[in-house]
Amino acid sequence: MTDTFSQVWSDSLQALLQRGSSAGADLVEIFLERTDHIGLLAEQDRITSVNPTFAKGAGIRVFLNGRDGFVSTNDLSQEGLTRSLDQALAMLGLQASGLSTANGFEGLSPLRDYGHDKETWLATCPSMADASSRLLQGTAQLERLGQHLQVRRGSYARDWQEVLVAASDGTFARDIRLHQSTGLSVLAADGDHRSSVGRRYGSSDRPDDLHTWDVEASAAEVCQSAGKMLRADYVEAGQMPVVLANRFGGVIFHEACGHLLETTQIERGTTPFSDKVGQSIAHSAVTAIDEGISSGAFGSLAMDDEGMEPQRTVLIKDGVLQCFISDRAGELRTGHQRTGSGRRQSHSFAAASRMRNTYIDAGPHTPEELISSVDNGLYCKAMGGGSVGPTGQFNFSVEEGYLIKDGQLGRPVKGATLIGDAKEVMPRISMCANDLDLAAGFCGSVSGSVFVTVGQPHIKVDTITVGGR
Amino acid sequence: MTSQSLNAVQLRDRIQLLAQQAGVQHWDLGAACSDDCSVQVDRGEAKQLKASQRSSITVRVWNSDGLVGITSTTDLSDGGLQQALDGARQASQYGNPDDVPQFSPLATAPLPELNRPLKSRQGILPLLARLRDAEADLLGRHPAIQTVPYNGMAESLSTSLYLNSDGAVRTMERTQASLYLYARAEEQGRKPRSSGAVRLALGSDELDIPGCIKEAAERTVSHLGYQPIETGVYRVCFTPEAFLSLLGAFSSMFSARAVLDGVSLSNRNSIGDSLAVPYLSLYDDGLHPGHLSAAPFDGEGTPTQKLCLIEAGKLQNFLHSEATARSFGVQPTGHAGLGAKVSVGPDWFVVQTSEGISSGSALNHTTCTDPFVLIEDLSALHAGVKATQGSFSLPFDGWLVKNGERISVEAATVAGDIRSLMNSIVHLEQDLEITTRGVAPHVWVDGLSITGEA
Fold it and tell me: How far is B358 from chain A (nearest CA, A)?
């Protein structure tokens, strides 16, 4: 078989789908993948790590009566794929006879090739020399703009992926994806005072993105934040109103609410919103979107990992739940229509309903109006990571925070953690500003780590628990 | 390629030939193959059945300037290996001349004996039957337990090896099985609560399924009667699992790599410094019998060993790779990965009372009547720990214990500084518990800030 996925694979894949369908499967899906990744790390003024990685493999999933069996392998030979298919069939009590019997499989549709005009992307991405040079420019800018910097780091990752999806419902589609991300981080130290700050920027499908990266602006943002936080006091714990900045502030909506709107959560019985479509679940100021179509955004796709084109999905409109994020298994098991959201980290994972570019839509206010409406509270300018538990409780660290006193920004504070419950917090988002902006990120969940975008305008939460000292 | 077909000698010969053709004299590699399967269930039905056959190889080469490059691939065909060698040679042009790893001087030293016999695997359908039974048993333990949303049973066979052009050949094969059950319980008009348990074994026949069900049920039910806790400063008792989680998140204190990179709380001169109360000692013991995933060698082929990190409160050793050990003038300790820049990390922590220095026995989490917070598990360590600063602010599951009565704590965080915490330990209980993360007793700490919603 050729090294490139193309129409050439049609006969081989049809034979496998025929084999699975004849055995009695409701649906057979084959996902083929090749990847070419490179990661670079610059520390101080040296490139200290260059890591190229190549991978290929297949994930084969068989559905029967709502259940599924999934097998992944690195062996893309016909023998290897047949062995994996037979293993998936056997999991469901099915056995391939090798005979072609009437089974509803009518052959693959003509190949939808979303990768056709992307063949040159890999070759036009920055070379190791170019990428190294840009990273060293980044760490040099950090040195120039920062103070008390003990560690300066720059990182770059390029992920190229070619996929081919074939299923016994006729689906036959190919795509090439390209994701690039760059990051700068510092550790500032002065006596007992320390601050560590990092920022990451990412795009999809833009081979020249590293060349257009504004190194100086990125370095300035990191250094400014590190300088502000170096001598910040720890925040005093308590319940208070909070204003969350735009861009990566959207990680809270992603974690606290977005995951609960994936059909995998309905299947598990772990979302409080499963029967709330058409009902108010958030303040009327909140409209939330999940889409895979914004040009160049980290979570955008030409097709999902089940061969479906993505959509713009309105999740919440004026506080009212509109629909869920769904994949093939989600549609089968919950009845919610697929939204082009079947995603997976690699062939080792079965696709699942996952977010793409997810954000709270812009509102009518200015960011200043939000801050001036708070007497005593916290302004979260930059968020760190967070997580959501199986009962919907979430927690997020605040990387850069400032007290708000009498409607004015006050001194910087560190050590804050926001904790709460989506069901209780969503109705408390009472104001949205007019400065919607997006940020690239990675989301880890049931089908592995996938590229996503989070976003929001500045928003105000009337009250939330702030963990501190 | 399956794990059975990963033959070290054949792989060495193939790489040697390809390297010679490419003009590469000096190389090493790590390879791994695994064959595993897992099941999940949902209220009696099979939810997902998974199997995988995986192989991967990481090749390092030294170029004519002595610089190192590395490449990984999942393609173990001759074409794949050739591509990996080419990639590594190209990457070596960007090797860091200030930090060039070499072969470990211990890569051919005798390996420790590990008593980890391979166990036969049962296959996916027997796993499914057992997990169905376990789920049904757990659901029947309490009317409030309505689902077990996170569950799984898995078994695997894996092979790992390390080879280098100086003749080192390290191989290991192991089997492992796991079971996890996380239940969700909800009472009328109250918030849902969730907790669970995990078990590991060398084979699925050896999994302690009844123990896992019992622990998952008891832990979940114990959190039903939750109440908010008042924000304040508390005496805290960490379960062994929770204390090991916290310690693991700050393991850069013990990593020579992190010291050299300037991102550790320790520095080159920290050996001998007081890090903790004198009655605390800490070892990293990758050979401990309770460590089911133990490997006899690290990513550079260095034998695994037991290493004292803290003795009587004082820092004794750092964890080392070959390169960091050379920089510090010591021997590698068996804690390295494989890379152009080699990572260094802990294996299996053992926390215990220092020999001859007791903290007494006044405190016992099962009998203490004075108020304290018992922290069962910490969450979101990736987000709430600032390892380079020493600070943490973490959500936790636990109880406020008053007069022996345990009241589950609703939505709270615990915050502090790891250096202060290590010096605020007031007691290490006598009984050591083997967890999935290491070995430790219950650890009592004074003066930790807890934020609640009361």
Answer: 31
